[in-house]
Write the C-alpha cells for this entry.
Amino acid sequence: MNVLLCLVAGYLIGGLPTGLLFCRIVKGVDPRTLGSHSTGATNVSRVLGKGWAAVVLLVDILKGFLPTCFLPSVLCADHLIAGTLAIAAGLVIGHVWTPYAGFRGGKGVATATGTMIAIDHVAVLAGGGVWLLFFLPFRIVSLSSIVAAVSLPIGMLLLGGRPAAYIVGASVLAAFILFTHRRNIGRLLKGKEKRL
C-alpha cells in the first residue's frame, strides 16, 4: 500500500505543468498550441526564449530530484527501493500526462533526469556526457535525449554495484522516453527533426 502511495504522490507532484505555467504567466500562451506542442523546456525555448527555458528545465529537474530523494524514506521506509522506483515512475508519468492540464504535458526527459540524479548521479553524469556527444555536432535535442536515455542502464551495468531493480527501472524509463519521442523518431528517420 505504501508503494502505491509513493506512485500516487509522485504522479500528483510530477503533474505540475511547469512549462505551461511559465508560458501562461509570462506570455499568456499555451505552449501545447505552438512548436512541438509540448510543455517541455525545448518547446518553451521556442515560445519564451532560452532564458525561460533554462528556468523550466531546472524546475523540472528539481521536480524529479527532490521527491525521489526525500519522499521514499517518509512514505515507504520499509520498502525503500520499491518506493523510490514508484515515486520516480509517478513523477515521470505525471509530467507526461498531467492531471492538471488535460493529461497533456511534456516528454519526461528533465523530470526523469532529476529522478535518476537522485538514484545514481554518477551514471547520469556519464549519460550527460553521451547527451553532449550527440548534441554538439547535431544540435538535435530529441536525438541526444533518446541516446542518453538508452545509454543510462548500460552505463549503470558497466559501472557495476548497482541494485538490479534500479537497472531494470532505468531500462523501463529508457523505453518510456523512446515512447514519448515516437513522433520525434519518425521525423528523425525522415530527416525532418528540428535543430536547436
